Amino acid sequence: MNVSNLIKSKITAFSFLLIIGFNINIFAKEDILQQIESPDASVNLTLKEVDGNLVYKLYKQEKLIVDASVISILPNVPVKIINTETKSLNETWKPVWGQFSEIRNEYNELILNITLDKATAKLIIRVFNDGIGFRYVIEGSEAGIEADFFTEYNLKSTDVLYCPAGENDPLGPLSLQDFSTYSKLPKLMTPLVIERLEGSHLSILESDLYSAPEFGAIKFKFDPFKKRVVSSNKIKLEGRKLTTPWRVILVEEKVGDLVTNTIPLNLATPSEIEDTSWIKPGKTLWDWRVHDYVTADGFTYGINNESYFRFINFAAEKNIKYFLIDANWYTKVTKGHFDVADGLDLEKVSKYAENKGVKLILYYDRHKGDYGDNELFQYFNSLGMSGIKYGFMGNNVSFSKDAIMKSAENQLLVDFHDSPVPFTGIERTFPNAVTREYCHAQQDSRKAFTPETFIKMALINAIQGPLDMNNGNFDLVGINKGDRLKGPKKENTYFSTVASEAARTLVIFSGLVCLPDAPEAYNKKADLFEFIEKMPAGEWDDSKVLYSKMDSYISTARRHGEEWFVGSVYNKQGGTLDIELDFLKDGVNYNITYYEDTSETHGMNNPEAYQVKSGIVKKGDVIKAKMAPGGGHCMWIRPQ
């Protein structure tokens, strides 16, 4: 479609619209209408002035997705449009790491230059083939004015909503028509996922908070009077130029496609790190869940040199890049000094890891004392660490942004834990921000973590970016009966199978795949661990969610070079997915290894039963992936 047809405008006495490079079409006198379509014309956004407010509508394939909704930056201040500009972009860029080795960035853009009483601003709207983004740039204002980046989302009453709930089971399904009946409205967190009656799906979130930390993370609520979801973030203006984050609406037919939608990355600020050669995603072993684990030869894991040597040896043997040393490696912290735990010689462990070619990541817990953040990252770098796992920083955007930048200055990866800021897109801007615990991280609380919770988080929480969920436990029987110091708070509540645990390490995308079990547990099931060993982490050429249904199942395929890895997970009922191998190349025979549940496997009663099989497949073959209750299925596919 010719770009000149994308914008339509009406001139009225209220405002004079200067259209650059576009045709003018006359509407009814009461209308002031801007219309912009996606490059493939499937997504359409209209913008109208109503009583001094800008009101948008969103369509997909000519179906109304979001009805008339206000978007504003200064409350109760009439908008006057001075002129509009338009542009289009179609480019491909390469992320440092991610779900794709190349990302296409294609959109049409409309810029409205506006005045708002004592302020001037731009409203920038980008329309992609699978969603939209809009942001304000406040170019000048009087000091002391309160800005409010306010957006309405006028959804259908029959729509069903889901969203994260911290370390609890995600909220949903919540029917929007029932919201006004609640005595206490639920807290809505980003990203929102909207399931429509006809089967399509939306996600509402934000991107590029890095450029606008003053606004804080997006805040949602339900307006019971207008019966619609709204987002609102307020800030005092000081007369300077200010940019808001992007408000983002993703539009997909399948819920799983929201997880691989690249609009949030395309809207993020490009990499601020000039030399990214030191940034390497990968897998890491982790000691926290292994404390008090007793091996067959009578060794008991703890916080000491010998325990860490065992982890490092296994990492070196299995080509695992990192070993993560979690809390309790130190007992006390004061500014400029750490008291290292008795029995641990950190310098000796660090040298041992270096000799074995394994990099170390070290935990820092702000609850234990203030080392001083200006010195913290330099200190970790001086210890020879390759990364920091940062705990208890709180939902503080500016603080977290500074921590990411300081860790980058000291060439440290950073893994944020304990209810972090959902910095969607930050992995493009600062690729050293490899993952975050914006989810329930396995064994913290069995009240929340069920097969259904995992599937929900894989389809909801994962939309905002890479997750540190710590999947991949193999000693499920021992964990369930309380053999670990840091196991479930309630015994015999961990519902999963070892095949499912292996699959989950692939389903959940992360720049740091954190493996929580002991080397001996993995060696005992070495043929199953092969799936985790062979797959890369964070360095994928292509990713697809093949099949997905909220609460029920998810099946994800990822490609590295010519090899495909497929992981599938089912809920407590179990079931079978017919997985079509139509993503393979024509005319090529592939070796395939299956890692799967057996007919006797059960997520609670017999979780460690599994089988490994091999065969030959080609494009068009259909694999019947049968999964036990709480079970899973894995495939490693490579050309003969």
Automatic annotation (TrEMBL):
InterPro entries the UniProt entry points to: Aldolase_TIM, GH, GH-type_carb-bd, GH97_C, GH97_catalytic, GH97_N, Glyco_hydro_b, Glycosyl_hydrolase_97
UniProt keywords, alphabetically: Calcium, Glycosidase, Hydrolase
Domain Glycosyl-hydrolase 97 catalytic span(s) in chain numbering: 293-437
UniProt KW Calcium keyword: yes
Gene Ontology MF terms: hydrolase activity
Domain spans labelled Glycosyl-hydrolase 97 C-terminal oligomerisation: 539-637
SUPFAM superfamilies found in the cross-reference section: (Trans)glycosidases
Required cofactor(s): Ca(2+)
A Pfam family recorded for this sequence: GH97_N
Assembly notes: Monomer.
Domain Glycosyl-hydrolase 97 N-terminal: 36-270
Listed name of the protein: Glycoside hydrolase family 97 catalytic domain-containing protein
